[in-house]
Amino acid sequence: MNISRIGGLVAGMLLLGAGTASAQEPITISPEKVQQICSNRVPRVEAKVKALTDKINGSPETLGSKKWIEQKAADARKAGNTARADVLDARLKLRDAQLVKLAKAGERIAKFKSEHCGSK
């Protein structure tokens, strides 16, 4: 999964439990729908959050990981390509922001799961 799709993933999870109607009335979901979300959607989202977090925190051999980007930036600096190194440094900052978003998404998923899915 492309890391840039994190926003869509997080937005999808927000619709599950954090949305309210314009009159500030809570959204209610049928027990059948909650069970379907708990058994199908929550495990898939948890797996995606874990996979993306693992990829970002991966080794220098993991394409797109922070360590991989750091290595490419160092190689670019060593070769005298400071513009490329600057672009890679900006990309590294984005990875840090993505880790924060993933952590928050994981917290929301865990909260939804504990409140609505029981001990699953």
Protein model, in words:
Keywords: Signal. Residues 1-23 form the signal peptide. There is one protein chain. With 120 residues, the chain is mostly helical. The protein contains four helices and no strands. α1 packs parallel to α4 (82-116) and α2 (31-56) packs antiparallel against α4 (82-116). The longest helix has 35 residues, at 82-116. The two termini are 25 Å apart.
Overall number of strands: 0
Q: Using the CA coordinates, give the radius of gyration.
A: 19 Å
Shape: elongated
Distance between the termini: 25 Å
Mean pLDDT: 84
> From the helix content, strand content and strand pairing, which structural class follows?
mainly alpha
Query: Largest sheet, described in full?
Result: none
Signal peptide: 1-23
Keywords: Signal
Task: Please describe the structure with a list of short key phrases separated by commas or semicolons.
120 residues, mainly alpha
